[in-house]
Amino acid sequence: MSIEWHRPVVAGVDGSYAALAAVERAAVEAAAHATGLRLVAAVEWATYRAIGLPALGEDHLRDVLLEQARGHLSAAQARVAVLQPQLEVSCEVIGGAAAAALERESAGAALLVVGGRGTGGFGEMLLGSVALALAAHSYCPVMVVRDVTASADGPVVVGVDDSRGREEVLRLAFTEAAAQGCELVVVHAWSAAKLDPLALPLLDWSLIESQSDDMVAGWTAPWEKEYPEVALRRVFVRDGAAGALTTLSESARTVVVGNGGRGAVRDFLLGSVSRALVHHAHCSVLVVPAAAPHEHP
C-alpha cells in the first residue's frame, strides 16, 4: 500500500471538542505531508424525524441542521487558518449517517481523521460507533484522535506481527515518523497463550527475545534503508500487546496498528488490540486498513 499524499487529509466535523481536536491534528498531518485539508460535516436529514415537532416541517428542520453544520465547519476552518494558514482548505456538508458518509469520503482521501468522542445525535461521533466503524471499514488509514493530551515531542509507536498486513503498517509508521521528524518504536509481542502451561517454565526467554529481535530487524531493514533519517528502537514484550502499546502511548504522539492482523505469533485485530487502543490509548491511534486504500469491493 502506498499512501497517495496528493489526495487530501479529510477530517470529520460535528461541533464537538473532540472533533475540533481532530481538525487540529488533521491540519498538522496535512501540513507535514504537504497536501490539502478537506473538512466535512455529515447531516442525516434524509432519515431523521423530529418527534414532537411536526409543525416545523421537515424542510425547516433540514435547513436548521444544514445551518448548524455550516457553522461547525466555519469554526473549524477558522481554527485551521490560525494554526496552519498556508494550508489549502475545503469544506462541505455531506448527506447521510456519519459513519457511512465518512466511509465514502475515505475512498478519495489519503488519511481520514476523526475524534474519539462526539456530540451524539446528528453528529453521531460517539466512541464505539463512528470511530470504530471507520477503523474497520475505511478505504484509507484512519486516525482516531483521543481526547487526551498527547506528547508533542514523543515517538511514533507501531505494533507489528507476522500478518500479511505488516508491510502496510510499517510503511505508514515510517512515513509518519519521517514526516514528524521523530523516533519510531517498533513493538513486537510474543504470545505463549497457545502453549501447554507445563512447557512455560522450560522456555528460554532470552533466546526467544533474541530470535524475535532478529525477525523484526529483518522486517524493518528495507524501511530503514528507505528512511535512513528515522531513528528506530525495537521493543519486545512477552504478552499483552494491547497493554504494552497503551503504556507506551503515554509518551507517544501516535500509535500505529493494523486492523486485520491474523498472525500466528500475535494478533493485532480490530476488536482486540486496535479496539483497546481506540478506547484507552493516551495519544492518537492510526489504524491501517487490511485492504489496499481506494480499492472498492
Quickly describe the structure.
By secondary structure, this protein is an alpha/beta fold. The protein has 8 helices and 10 strands.
Structure, described:
This protein folds into two domains: 137 residues, HUPs (Rossmann fold, 3-Layer(aba) Sandwich), CATH 3.40.50.620; 133 residues, Rossmann fold (3-Layer(aba) Sandwich). Helices cover 38% and strands 18% of the residues. It has eight helices and ten strands. The protein has a ten-stranded mixed β-sheet, with helices on both faces. The two termini are 16 Å apart. The chain is of the alpha/beta class and 297 residues long.
Topology:
Blueprint: E1 9-12, H1 17-32, E2 37-43, H2 58-83, E3 89-95, H3 98-106, E4 111-115, H4 130-137, E5 142-145, E6 156-160, H5 166-180, E7 184-189, H6 205-226, E8 232-237, H7 241-248, E9 254-258, H8 273-280, E10 284-288
Parallel strand pairs: 1-2, 1-4, 2-3, 4-5, 6-7, 6-9, 7-8, 9-10
Antiparallel strand pairs: 5-10
How many strands?
A: 10
| Radius of gyration computed on alpha carbons | 20 Å
Mean pLDDT over the residues:
82
Following the backbone from N to C, one meets helices and strands in this order, namely EHEHEHEHEEHEHEHEHE
CATH topology assignment of the largest domain: Rossmann fold
Low-pLDDT stretches are 120-128, 261-269, 292-297
DSSP helix fraction? 25-40%
Tell me the CATH superfamily of the largest domain.
HUPs
CATH architecture annotation of the largest domain: 3-Layer(aba) Sandwich
Q: Structural class, please? A: alpha/beta
Distance between the termini: 16 Å
